[in-house]
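The freezer alarm interrupted the setup, so I double-checked each line after restarting. Inputs confirmed:
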Amino acid sequence: MKTVFFRWALILCLVAGSLLVASRLEIREDAIDLLPGAAVQGDFILLKRLGLVNRLFISLDATALPAGSDPFGMLTGSAEKTGAILADSELFRDVYYRMPAGYGQAMLDYVRSCLPALLTSADLAALAQRLEGKGLESALQEDFLLLNSPVGMGMKEQIQADPLGFSLVALKRIEGLKGELAVQVRDGFFMSADGLHCLIWAESKLSLTDSSSAEKVDTFVRAALAKGLAPGIKADIIGSLPHTLANSRTIRHDLDLLMPLAFIVFFVLFIVMLKDWRGVLVIAVPFLAGAPAVALYSLFYTKISAMALGFGIALVGIADDFSIHLFMALSKEQGGSKAIMRRLAGPLLLALVTTVVVFVVLLFSQVPSHRQMAFLAIAGIVMAFVLSWYLVPTLVKEHSLVKPAESVPELQGFRIDKFLPRSRLARSIAIVAWFLLLASGCFAWPRLTYNGDLKSLDVPAAEVAGAEKSFHKIWGRDSGQAFIIAGGADLATALDQNDKVYVKLLAGGINDVQSLAPLLPGPEIQAARISEWQTFWRERLPTFSGKFGEAASVAGFTPEAFRPFISSLAAEPRIIKPNDLLNGPLAPLVTGLLRQSDAQPQADGNAGNLVVTILPDNRQTAPVLTSLAAETGTGVTVLSNSRWRSQVEVLLRQDLAKLALIAGVLVLLVSGSYFTRPRDLLAVLAPVLSSFAAMALYDYFTTRDLNIMHVIMGIMIQGIAVDYGIFMVSACQGKGATRTSIASISLGALSTLTGFGILAFAKHPALHGLGITVLVGIGAAWPTALLITPLLLRKEKNVEVNCR
Amino acid sequence: MGGEQLKPAVVLAGVFFLVFLCVAPGFVSAMDLDEFLTAVEAKAAPVNSFSCRFTQERHLAIFAKPVLFSGLLKMSRPRQLRWEFLKPIPSVLALKGTTGLRCSNGRSQRFELAADPVIASVVEQMWTWMDGSYRSLPQTWQIEYLPQAPGIRLVAKSAGVKAVMQAVRISFDRTTLRPVEIEIIDSGGDRTVLAFSEYVINPLLAETIFSQCGPPAQ
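Predicted 3D structure, all chains:
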């Protein structure tokens, strides 16, 4: 009794200490942990830094207002109130709901004052046509008419400063800055073409891919909308926020519903099969290993993905096979505890090694969360094995040990599998049926496609999809977007790179571009243009001023009318500084496309200065994007939604295919080192082969798509299924438990099916994929181990236990 | 809104407010200012469209001599306007919703108000006036009632408005009680005089005149 108390006290102290150590671990929900490869992760970091991941759009909708109401007034009032609440909050930065006061005039003033740095050679060549003859006369007559028209009544100073419309040339290119969304600026507000929608957008300071942060932001936004929206105005929230919420809420709903059910089934299962209340502790033992495993992890790392933590600990649950086998054998097998444990040691250790080997392979995955999960699973399973070995004997009633350790087991003639078909015909039919299953699996496997798109694991919420569809229709963002990010150690370098990108895009015939280049060129381009401007006017100004004066006089102006204009041509050109724009009323047009060095330098050597160009991601832009992406050492990164998704898909596919193959080979080698005869090995691997065949057939008859969940759980099932084969073959050959093997394997399989397989009923695609894989895989491996594995073994003459 | 951006908006808003006064009959000289504005707003409310002839005399320092234009003005709710010069240089400015059209010398140029923030701002102000929100006028203008003219005088109150326009004087016809002359005094001393005549209230106006250059007006 003392020993029992001591053992449990020791382990509980270990668990408590582990929890203390593990508590310093930072649990995070970051999508980056789910992405493969440094390059892809780097791209995601760039997107995040540019505010594109944590940006949310709020589309206000006045379509439900009754006739006779004032949609513009109600929309702008709602935008003003809601936007102001968001802007005052600590949760957001860069909240845009209207352009700052005076932005229109500010834009004109800016362009006019920076013309030498903004006009290209082509612009100057076009302007040269307006400097003499008909071009000059026509331009001045237009000015004369404009000054006399209603819209020109307040434009006297503007026309005096720029009578030939030089500014308009530069302004036209800057229109592209509003091109990301089809907004029309009315009274400074971002309105839709139909005038029935108004847009607000903001960047959350909290990560919107983190479920708890997303809930916090969502609560705040909903409260702001409740306060800010006029009656009858509706609002849709678009961005990563609704996706995160839909996923986390669906997962929570699934787990809230299914986990209690699983626990009840678990409890009943163990009580019924073990007929002993202490059976409940048998399944608790492996889970005690979770805390030391996490503590061990925390000695090496400071952060862990929430997904990896949850999965890793859940995976430890598969180690209940060890405690079940030990408990059943110690309770029901004949012989002393030491002898039983000695007999079990071989098969259990082999099962441990094959399971661990599978997860060791995952340590080499390119996906951080896979590695974290594998670490936890390995540490947890090894620890669970040790704890089972140490604690399970304390749970066994003394009287159930049938004979002293030295007694000879009474196994002679015992049929381990009472369910096996007895007749030769029945056995042949079973074998043929199994081979047919394998053949069907072989047929189905090559016909399955791997779907690496992480979106396939996104919960398909109808409300979110409907809002996005409506958003695309109203704001015209229906095609994917590509982002070209120019980085540099300083902003000047980044802007120079951005100019080069812009030139290449124009050369590639792509004009539908949202770029800072026309508004804020880098120092190199500015210097070149200013020099060209000065040369241009040095050659022309002496004759131009005379001709211009005459033409102005003919048009009806006084000789002094355009003195400001003529003076500006000879003035010292202004060099544009980024802060002039960032701190002015044009900031809303600029900030989304530029990030200064407020973050750590990137791995590629680029500091935090980023300038982004946004363009459609389609067939027309694909060649130029590919060409830009192929250039190295330029500090330019191309992020195209389609290219990125396909890159993630390819990397995941290669990664998982490679790892699954290596895991398979290792399992084969480890099993082969113990079961050296090919027929024995085939019998050991039969459950694995069945599980793969069944999974392939299931996918073939359903979606024909394999996703990341199918593959990861497939690897895990490999580790579990081979254990069934090991236990069964060992039992048949008298190496392990004999009397209790079927019950132990069955209880282990049923517990796995209950714990994981019940998730097949989950609504969330990822949980459903996980559950269905386990359900089908273990569902096939379990009967194979019981019915087929014994049939594949050769009948042994000198073995005490024989399954045939 | 900054003073700079107010420039064109203020001018146009003033002009169109005053033009709209033309179509508000029932001027009573014994009224005080408040009663007068109330009456104007009440009378303007049922006016859905109007047309009138006008002459415009611009005295700008940058013009070599005063410039005289004459033409037709047609307006219709919601958000439709045609300002057409007939002499000396025919030209048209037509606005319909968020789209504008300028026609002169046989050429036409359509423009989206959203693409030109200045004009968009001007037109936005203009529609505000046309919708009858006259009570917002005193916020930027001081209105003086001139019963003996009869007329009213608007004096710019805010610095932003003063930078563009100092004052506006409106003279009314004693018989018809409709304004016949509007004089706009710019901040630099420039002056514009608009004279209106031959008003037609709620005429049937073809939709096309607000979106097409032709046909030439009669």
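Quick read of the result. Chain B touches chain A through 49 residues (CB under 8 Å).
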